[in-house]
Design goal:
Elements (H helix, E strand, L loop, with lengths): L1 H57 L4 H28 L2 H26 L7 H7 L4 H17 L4 H13 L3 H14 L4 H15 L5 H12 L4 H13 L3 H12 L8 H15 L21 E6 L12 E8 L2 E11 L5 E4 L15 E9 L11 E4 L3 E2 L5 E5 L1 E2 L2
Parallel strand pairs: 1-8
Antiparallel strand pairs: 1-4, 2-3, 2-5, 5-6, 5-7, 6-9
Helix pairs in contact: 1-2, 1-3, 5-6, 6-7, 7-8, 8-9, 9-10, 10-11, 11-12
Length: 406
């Protein structure tokens, strides 16, 4: 509302700036022009008088002719003076100032009156605008109707069906939203975003993710294994079936995509730990953002992939590099990369330890895994490799991913 009013005021001010200055300055300009004309006329008459006196002195004319001519010039000078007075009176600025004042007051008044008569004054009330959220129900219905009519004429418009599906979802008309997504799914059968949104609507309609919604989420994961919404739905379906280990696995794949330190990671981690607890598994190790300060490693080196396995590493694959004691046990610290970054130099210098109370052994092993599942849980089909035992402060450690996990 404030922006609208300011915009209107600026328009009115611009209009008045175009109108008022000519009116207010017209009298002055006319007076100046009249003064210039009067001065020029008087100068000409003076020159003629001088010439007339010169003619008399030279004997070119007699006294009678001189007197008659001088009388004529004086009469003309008097007429010029009277004309100047009349012009000055006609150019009086008072009528123009009255017009200027009238316009200065009348134009804004007419604008306000016109808006009150033809516009929507209620729209200037913030409470009314907030209550309508920008559109009335009738306007929304009209827009939806127009979109439906357009799709009746263009039934294969992907963008049209996408817009209509989302509109129904926003309006919470889930039955129509499901039907619209079904139509959209036929037009773009392998779109993971469409499949995930469709699954979400179906889950709302059915009251559960298991069944049809889960099937749609799995279709999305077949196309995009790391799709966050599809992973969330698949994990919820597994949780509803009491398959808590599978639920934790799906949600861990979401967690692996969240940059360390992001606030949203806390909620996902809590869900993962809850599912793992119900599955009888240990909670996830503390991430880098929450690990307590403690001993650190000074290891550094380079991670590569054996040439025979290079084609099996996808750019979006999650790659973990971790350190554990040479006699096994849980990881002491871990780094995470993407398949697209390989080969890559790694450094554990300053990396937080996963367990602050765990002492760093004298000899450690640096291992790496391309996690095809996207999370830290080892699975068949993952690509792995490890170094020979090295000192905890070794540099130039070479790790080669050279085998496929059974």
């Amino acid at each position: 509302m404030t922006v609208f009013v300011l915009f209107v005021c600026l328009l009115l001010a611009g209009a008045l700036l175009l109108i008022l200055p000519p009116l207010l300055g017209a009298g002055a300009r006319q007076r100046r022009a009249q003064a210039r004309q009067e001065a020029l006329a008087l100068a000409v008459l003076r020159e003629q008088l001088v010439e007339l006196d010169t003619e008399l002195a030279a004997g070119h004319i007699d006294s009678a002719s001189h007197a008659q001519s001088r009388e004529e010039l004086e009469r003309r000078a008097l007429e010029e003076g009277e004309a100047a007075v009349e012009a000055t009176g006609a150019a009086d600025s008072r009528p123009r100032r009255a017009w200027a004042l009238g316009l200065a007051l009348g134009v804004p008044a007419l604008a306000v009156a016109g808006y009150l008569a033809l516009g929507e004054p209620e729209a200037l009330d913030p409470q009314n605008v907030a209550g309508q959220q920008g559109f009335t129900q009738a306007q929304v219905a009209e827009m939806v109707g127009a979109l439906e009519a357009r799709l009746a004429q263009e039934p294969d418009s992907v963008e049209g069906w996408r817009m209509l599906s989302r509109t129904y979802l926003v309006l919470q008309d889930y039955a129509k939203a499901e039907a619209a997504y079904a139509r959209l799914g036929k037009l773009v059968p392998n779109d993971p975003d469409v499949l995930s949104d469709w699954a979400d609507v179906v889950a709302i309609q059915r009251g559960t993710v298991t069944g049809d919604a889960e099937a749609l989420a799995q279709q999305a994961l077949d196309v995009a294994p790391t799709h966050p919404k599809a992973l969330a739905l698949a994990g919820t379906a597994a949780y509803q079936r009491a398959d808590y280990a599978a639920a934790a696995g799906y949600w861990e794949r979401i967690l692996a995509q969240i940059p360390p330190g992001e606030e949203v990671a806390k909620g996902v981690r809590a869900s993962v730990d809850e599912a793992r607890a119900k599955a009888g598994l240990a909670p996830l190790a503390a991430d880098a953002g929450s690990a307590a300060p403690g001993a650190t490693l000074a290891l550094s080196g380079r991670l590569e992939v054996d040439g025979a396995l290079g084609a099996q590493v996808a750019p979006e694959d999650v790659v973990f590099v971790f350190v554990r004691g040479d006699d096994g046990g849980p990881p002491l610290a871990a780094l995470r990369f993407k398949g697209s970054e390989l080969p890559v130099d790694f450094r554990f210098d300053g990396a937080p330890m996963m367990g602050a109370e765990v002492p760093v052994p004298a000899r450690v092993v640096v291992a790496a895994r391309v996690a095809k599942g996207g999370d830290a849980t080892p699975r068949s089909g993952d690509l792995e490799g490890a170094s020979a035992p090295v000192a905890a402060d070794a540099h130039g450690v070479k790790v080669v991913i050279d085998r496929v996990r059974d």
